[in-house]
Design brief:
The chain has one helix and six strands; from the N terminus they run ββββββα. By secondary structure, it is an alpha+beta fold.
Length: 93
């Protein structure tokens, strides 16, 4: 298994949409994956890996975990960073 050596989460300022944040991870201090989306779905929050639109209109992942164990590891790491970002975010009244 690899190590995620850095995680950055940018919260989305608009609160009315399903997109809550965008994350980036660094793997083993040598490989970066950007534009991982944190989205609210019917069953709660989930991550969507970076993707591109095909000429047919479908979306295909550019980078993604290829097994459940790795996907859960990436998701859990990003969700912990998201929770921390929410805790430390400035709130305005």
């Amino acid at each position: 298994m690899f190590n995620i050596t850095d995680t950055k989460v940018r919260l989305v300022k608009r609160t009315d949409g399903k997109l809550k944040a965008v994350a980036s991870i660094i793997i083993d201090e040598c490989f970066a994956i950007h534009d991982i989306k944190i989205i609210t779905g019917n069953d709660g929050l989930f991550i969507a890996m970076p993707s591109r639109k095909t000429p047919e209109g479908d979306f295909k992942d550019i980078a993604h975990p290829i097994n459940t164990e790795t996907r859960e590891f990436v998701k859990n790491t990003i969700m912990k960073a998201y929770a921390l970002a929410l805790e430390t975010a400035e709130t305005f009244e």
